[in-house]
Design goal:
- The chain has a domain at about 1-135: NADH:ubiquinone oxidoreductase Nqo5 subunit (Beta Polymerase, domain 2), CATH 3.30.460.80.
- It is of the alpha/beta class.
- The strands form three sheets. The protein has a five-stranded mixed sheet with strand order 1-2-5-4-3.
- A hairpin with a 4-residue loop joins strand 4 and strand 5.
- The protein is about 20% helix and about 25% strand.
């Protein structure tokens, strides 16, 4: 299969030309192409319709967040060609303010996946027919899969008995966060547990095992 993917990679690199911005590679039985943001619709349309490709099964869109990068988001498309029995991964990148062209008109299944990426990462898609939240509530603040999203969120939801309705409130922590190492206290711990200091030294500071 890797041989078929490498052959396809060479073919796509030549056919797509400058749309492929950093070559291609085969990883874990899938061909990966990195393309320019504005080239996404043309590339996916080619992959779907070209006779040597026929990637007409849209699997998924995934977002990846790298806050330290200028273009912090990678948008990753996964496609399957049942005819060729091959998979391909198409990647592009963008920032918080610049939208990626929607491909919902090419692959109708992309509609909800683009909404999911918008909801959870804040990735924008231009010309999307209905770009709104899909997993979180419409009044939700922020995008929960961003690396800088607080672990507790910004608000919490509860039912108010007096008002007889669900209300939103700022998060209130009953106690400070504690760090748990999840290590067994009998093995692997590299520090002295409270009370164990008496097991290594006597009351006069001498080694109790000596």
């Amino acid at each position: 299969m890797d041989a078929a993917l490498k052959e396809l990679g060479d073919y796509l690199s030549e056919a797509l030309g400058d749309n492929v911005v950093s070559g291609w590679q085969v990883t874990r039985g899938e061909l990966t192409l990195v393309v320019g943001r504005e080239s996404v619709p043309d590339v996916l349309k080619f992959l779907k319709s070209d006779a040597l490709c026929l990637f007409d099964c849209f699997i998924d869109i995934a977002g990846v967040d790298y806050p330290e990068r200028k273009r912090r988001f990678e948008v990753v498309y996964h496609l399957l060609s049942p005819r060729q029995n091959l998979r391909i991964r198409v990647k592009t990148s963008t920032d918080e303010a610049t939208p990626v062209p929607s491909v919902a008109n090419i692959y109708p299944a992309a509609n909800w996946f683009e909404r999911e990426a918008f909801d959870l990462y804040g990735i924008l898609f231009s010309n999307h027919p209905d770009l709104r939240r899909i997993l979180t509530d419409y009044g939700f603040q922020g995008h929960p899969l961003r690396k800088d999203f607080p672990l507790t969120g910004f608000v919490e939801v509860r039912y108010d008995e007096d008002q007889k309705r669900v209300i939103y409130e700022p998060v209130k922590l009953a106690q400070e966060f504690r760090s748990f190492d999840a290590m067994s206290p009998w093995e692997g711990v590299q520090y002295v547990l409270p009370g164990d200091e008496k097991a290594s030294t006597g009351e006069n500071g001498e080694d109790s095992h000596g």
